[in-house]
Request: fold
Amino acid sequence: MASINTVLGAIFVASFYFCGSLAFFPPGPGHHHEGAHHPPIGSAPIPGLSTDYYRLTCPQADETVAPILKKAIAKEPRVAASLLRLLFHDCFVQGCDASVLLDDAEEVVSEKNAIPNKDSIRGFEVIDEIKAALEEACPQTVSCADTVALAARGSTVLSGGPYWELPLGRRDSRTANMKLANKNLPPPNATLHRLIKFFRRQGLDKVDLVALSGSHTIGSARCVSFKQRLYNQHRDNRPDSTLETSFYHTLASACPRAGGDGEIRPLDLVSPSRFDNSYYKLVLEGKGLLNSDEVLWTGRDPEIAGLVKSYAEDEALFFEHYVSSVTKMGNINPLTGHDGEIRKNCRRVNQEI
Ligand code: HEM
Ligand SMILES: *[C@@H]1O[C@H](CO)[C@@H](O)[C@H](O)[C@H]1NC(C)=O
Reply:
């Protein structure tokens, strides 16, 4: 009797979960996520994702990723930054579903051509190499969305930043959304008020904004991304008065008023390939490279400015908040269960047979 009860109980529980997953995650591509109406994201676990998701199906996933990352970063340290940024640009556009990796195709308008991405996001060859190795080790098992997340986490750690327990189990979209990429990715000249709104749209708060902006402790930006600050900050033909003077002069000599838009400058001029808290120290000194960096300090929001100061003084606090915020970002609106697919090639959707 007890065993029959157990079986019935198991069937009840299983059907409950089945109905639950149908109710909360309607299957099929297209209408699964617009970004605005997902449930609030906290530190609570996301149904369908777990840190040991590949324990039985691909226990060697992380060991497969690590050596490829190490080699790529040793060859070019900036690759770590580029891969971390890919997670951001993936997750802010219809959730962390590897939509950012899709190339133009008959049914796909690639996000790679959206304004914030074009001639800017990079690291796709490294993702391809990692995915090929994962396919070799565990065919059709590890999604491209999880590959992006593993690459971002590994890149952070290899650059000297914190490690975090990474929930896995995301699946890959069969769609991309270039318009949503233009709408949801914040521009570098955004005001603080607008930055807060861009993050809130993703269920992220002010702490997340300040902590995740600390990703700019590694990597570079093109002149075109901060030129307005040098020559025409308030449409007045004058520089941004919050730029520290000597920093302004170095930037202006690297980025003339006309031309040179593709030249790059480090986001953190002290330690451009080390994931540390020097970004915040620079922001306090008027040496944040992007407008979106400097306004965290100058934007007259006491909570935000207070966090910048705290992270500048206490790297351990920055790392602690970063781990929590980057986990939240990585959990934005994933495809789970039977939604989406496990792409074989991250650049295109699987062909139906
Ligand atoms: C707060 C709003 C943000 C804005 C406005 C912003 C904007 C930018 C811009 C304009 C660049 C330079 C692109 C170029 O010139 O080609 C950049 C680079 C970068 N961003 Fe952000 N970003 C923001 C938040 C984030 C977040 C949340 C992350 C990661 C979690 C991130 C990671 C990076 C990294 C690592 C780079 C360097 C990439 C490389 O060197 O290839 N950013 N960002
Ligand atoms: C930011 O730059 C864009 C493109 O150059 C421009 O259209 C927009 O007005 C700028 N925004 C602000 C607040 O300066």
About this structure: Residues 61-184 form a domain with the Peroxidase; domain 1 fold (CATH 1.10.520.10).
